[in-house]
């Protein structure tokens, strides 16, 4: 009876110790978990390779693990909750990327924190806008290898399309055309090689022609300069004198116009009164001239007596 009582007592003590140890371990676990900080990351890409318990790295240093992976009401995003140590500097500017590997295991890489920036926390006003699930949110961006792996299907599709188009370009018909083009190009280069001396001579003649054109242009420039000098030295002074002469002639014409204007009344009086009298005088002089002419002729024929007396009758002789 006493032996059974001792076994029961020992068993009870052992059970009590085990229960206390379990409670201590649970408390330690809760205390350790309570010292971590939790954040949500919303990835707009596949999270293939991530799993609950996967490592979270900050600048390559292990800093926590993934606590939960879940879908969101928006099918474009996947929510990943992580837990990191309290000493991890999750500051404004920190971003999260999925660091993939060819072995199939992926991790979350945190970087981009800037010294002096405030920590990422839920705002006191309207916290659900930045913290829809009660914890701060770290912005996500596509990583190099992750973005490459995500774009691999599209890349393969484009490579396949490019290969098909290359096959179309390198069809038998196009190959024959390309062969003809290459043959024609070969013949053209051969012809150019044969005509090499003629081409060289043509180039030399062209060079001489260009040189002569340059000399002609130089001579034209010299001629233009000489013409300009002649215009400046000879023609422009003469033009100046001509302008002075024209101005003097104009002044003389203006003076003559004034004189004519002043003489206009006298000219009109002369034309109306004097001209008729002069006409009558000329008529009288003309008649007097004719009379004098007749007298002179009579003097020539009969002398002075013909003028003073009657003219003599001719002698009459009787016929036998």
Automatic annotation (TrEMBL):
Residues 43-111 form the Mce/MlaD domain. The chain crosses the membrane at residues 6-29. It comes from the Bacteria. Gene3D superfamilies: Designed four-helix bundle protein. Residues 301-320 are annotated as: Disordered. Pfam families: MlaD (PF02470). The keyword tRNA-binding does not apply. Keywords: Membrane, Transmembrane, Transmembrane helix. This is MlaD family protein. It comes from Sphingomonas immobilis.
